[in-house]
Amino acid sequence: MLPQAGPLRWRNVVDTPAVLIDLDVVERNIRRCQEQCDKLGVTVRPHIKTHKLPLLAHAQLAAGAVGITAQKIGEAEVMADAGIDDILITYNIVGERKLGRLRRLADRCRLSVVADSASVIEGLARAFANARSEIGVLVECDTGMQRCGVLTPEEALKLARLISDTPGLRFAGVMTYPAPGQGNAASEWLDDAARLIREAGIETQTVSGGGTPDLYAMKRHASLTEYRPGSYIYNDRSLVAAGACGVEDCALTVLTTVISSPARGRTIVDAGTKVLTSDLFGMSGYGMVLERADCSVISLNEEHGRIEYASEQAPVVGELLRIVPNHACVVSNMVDSVHLVRGEYYVRAEPVAARGQIT
Ligand SMILES: Cc1ncc(COP(=O)(O)O)c(C=O)c1O
Predict the structure, then answer these.
(1) How far is the CA of 139 from the centre of ligand 1 (A)?
(2) Whose CA is nearest to atom 16 of ligand 1?
(3) Ligand 1 centre and the CA of 209: distance in Å?
(4) Given this model, what pLDDT does residue 150 score?
(5) What is the per-residue pLDDT for 169?
């Protein structure tokens, strides 16, 4: 159960710039995603990189998620400290220091990780030889994102064999992060890989896909067992632009104050790259102003956001404006705490516990 609002309105409490999280919207987004995944017959393993908050990870688990996904060991350590006991790290872990931390983390939770080469698997094998706890390893597959991942189902089979034959490692399945818009095609790729691996007599427990852009466009697939959405909990301008959600589904906004309206058609707010980030995410402009559809966030300096507007009515110095950022996940990483709200009402400030965990 997420906390309820008190009697105060956030506009009378919060100093700017600040990040607001509307828990009414968060709860709706969590419920809708869980219902969709139930319909698809897959379990939910949300990626916590979007919110970095143990409070919301627990809310996702309470709604039915089977565990969480993290990108970095540091994020996973913070979540394990908060009592979360089933974590998948979707990142190649390379280097002795990180492998040592991974081994220690495996003693504290049910841990799995991904690998896309024999070198990564050899590192895991060294770290987990004679370890107290084994680690699950999924083969990461490149189904079109052109990031990490093996390029063919045959290569996936080769690595599945290597993992299965390595003491201390448990072959846990295959995973991918699809290119946006390619969720269904990516799952067909995984179907082929899983079939090949199973035909070779290797048990393939998990077939894991993900990505918010395709969440509500997914069909049922023969082998997909798990979905890892992240951004769905907050949504953002990029997802509105992709048609994956509406503006009313955006839970994270950046609250700003108008600090100058120096010329006709131009106004300046107190949020720049240090809050909104310079992530264009393939779009033009740096966010969507909720209160003023005629406003465009044209450019940013560190502490200044330059807005241009079409109407005759200039934003007034001191006025509050909320901006839906292009990409919510990166904004979460910019602030020590976010302000939880419900509609107009204030709940409390919440420390972003897994902020800045880049190793
Ligand atoms: C490996 C992996 N899984 C899942 C996700 C969640 O994706 P989304 O935020 O599109 O839901 C990401 C996001 O970057 C990712 O990299």
Answers:
(1) 16
(2) 177
(3) 9
(4) 98
(5) 98
What's the rounded Cα separation, in Å, for the pair 230 and 205?
22
Q: What's the CATH code of the domain at 337?
A: 2.40.37.20
Question: For position 331, what pLDDT does the model report?
Answer: 98
pLDDT (tens digit, 9 = 90+) per residue, 262-296? 999 999 999 999 999 999 999 999 999 999 999 99
Planar angle of CA 227, 80, 180, nearest 5 degrees:
25
Residues 222 and 262 in one domain: no
Q: What is the DSSP string of 310-355?
A: -SS-PPPTT-EEEEEES-HHHHHTT-SEEEEEETTEEEEEEE-TTT
pLDDT at 1: 87
Point out the ligand 1 atom lying closest to the alpha carbon of residue 212.
11
| Residue 329 belongs to a domain | yes
| Residues 344, 209 share a domain | no
Q: Which residue ranges in the chain fall short of pLDDT 50?
A: none
Mutate to test the pocket of ligand 1, among 177, 208, 238 (most ligand atoms within 8 A of CB): 177
- The answer on 226 and 276 residing in a single domain is no
- The amino acid that residue 333 corresponds to is N
- Looking at residue 55, which CATH number applies to its domain? 3.20.20.10
pLDDT 10s digits, 6-27: 999 999 999 999 999 999 999 9
What is the Cα–Cα distance from 107 to 105, expressed in whole angstroms? Answer: 5
**Distance of alpha carbon 99 from alpha carbon 105, whole angstroms:** 10
The best mutation among 228, 233, 239, 331 to test binding of ligand 1, ranked by most ligand atoms within 8 Å of the C-beta, falls on: 228
Within 6 A (CB) of ligand 1 lie 47, 50, 69, 90, 177, 210-213, 228-232
